[in-house]
Design brief:
By secondary structure, this protein is of the alpha/beta class. The protein has a single domain, classed as Aldolase class I (TIM Barrel, Alpha-Beta Barrel), CATH 3.20.20.70. It is built from 12 helices and 12 strands. It binds ligand PBG. Belongs to the ALAD family. It catalyses: 2 5-aminolevulinate = porphobilinogen + 2 H2O + H(+).
Length: about 350
């Protein structure tokens, strides 16, 4: 009995066949040498919330460290992105509730918040890529991504509205249109619309596998839809139980002309990310959504997690699972950290 606990009696080399995995972990230089994936600033897309006003900054309570910025300050954020080398930012508006209606008409106003921000940012920092979200939820009084008929979100009429929204954004200078609405056929319709209007170079990043997730909660606080959303989004966003369905969605989006695909949320769906990248081998992105950010930050604030390490580890996991890039609210913090390293 006691002999078993005696190191001299245990022949580890026989057990492992002389393989010692720890050799390659012995020092920082050795670990760096065998590292399979690396996170770099080129992997980052930074989502930014915008709000009406001048020199106005408002904290988002459920997302510590994240703020809504008026257009002038959003320009300053874009300049910060440029300085840090972050390739692209994604814009999300908090629309004045007085401007929301059942049709989401404000989405088609060429002078809405997103469009004004696009113009201002494009003229100040043209080298930063501008991603705009196509979906009606920041603009509808009921908080849905599409048009409501009774209790149904109607597909085809919504798609027509989304095409118009995409054109308005492209006209304002958006470089990448990112449809996050999950209507059928929207990628193809938007591509045709963009091409017909002469926006042939505008890319489409399709939210291909977007799940009906509880992790969007803080985002809905940020854009002011959590209080107004009627029901849920399960008739258009995907069932979290499914993965084959994600492949079909991505296949259709690519056939319809998507230049890039996305999985959302991120961390709970790394298996989906892996499958999509393995299957299609196209530029594939993950969205580390608001609830993932909030979870990490809440634990950090309680002193339960080392924030820096949790941030880097969570983002490295996306690279390991095959992501070509990550939309993350940590983008500026990561970029700063990478620049300091
Ligand atoms: C809206 C949209 C959502 C997010 C991005 N675009 C929320 C939703 O579908 O309700 C979520 C992003 C996040 O949680 O960080 N179409």
């Amino acid at each position: 009995m006691t002999a078993l606990f005696n190191a001299a009696d245990i022949d580890i080399d026989r057990i492992t066949g002389r393989r010692r995995m720890r050799r390659n972990r012995k020092a920082d230089w050795a670990r760096r040498l065998v590292r399979e994936t690396t996170l770099g600033v080129d992997d980052l897309i930074w989502p930014i919330f915008i709000i009406d006003g001048d020199r106005r900054t408002e904290p988002v309570a459920s997302m510590p460290g994240v703020e809504r910025h008026s257009v002038d300050l959003a320009v300053a954020q874009a300049e910060r992105a440029a300085k840090l080398g972050i390739p692209a930012i994604a814009l999300f508006p908090f629309t004045d509730p007085a401007k929301r209606d059942p049709m989401g008409s404000e989405a088609l106003n060429g002078d809405n918040l997103v469009c004004r921000a696009c113009r201002a940012i494009k003229s100040a920092v043209p080298e930063v890529g501008l991603v705009t979200d196509v979906a009606l939820d920041p603009y509808t009084s009921h908080g849905h991504d599409g048009l409501l008929d009774g209790s149904e979100i109607v597909n085809d009429a919504t798609v027509a509205q989304l095409v118009r929204q995409a054109l308005v954004q492209a006209d304002a200078g958006a470089d990448v249109i990112a449809p996050s609405d999950m209507m059928d056929g929207r990628v193809g319709a938007i591509r045709e619309g963009l091409d017909a209007a002469g926006f042939r170079r505008v890319q489409i990043m399709a939210y291909s596998a977007k799940y009906a997730s509880a992790f969007y909660g803080p985002f809905r606080d940020a854009i002011g839809t959590s209080a107004t959303l009627v029901g849920d989004k399960r008739t258009y966003q995907m069932d979290p139980a499914n993965t084959d369905e994600a492949l079909h969605e991505a296949e259709m989006d690519l056939a319809e002309g998507a230049d890039m695909i996305m999985v959302k949320p991120g961390m709970p769906y790394l298996d989906v990310l892996w499958r999509l990248k393995q299957e299609f081998k196209v530029p594939t992105y993950a969205y580390q959504v608001s609830g993932e950010y909030a979870m990490i930050m809440a634990a950090v604030r309680n002193g339960w997690l080392d924030g820096d390490r949790a941030m880097m580890e969570s983002l490295s996991a996306f690279k390991r699972a095959g992501a070509d890039g990550i939309l993350t609210y940590f983008a500026p913090a990561v970029a700063e950290r990478l620049a300091a390293a």
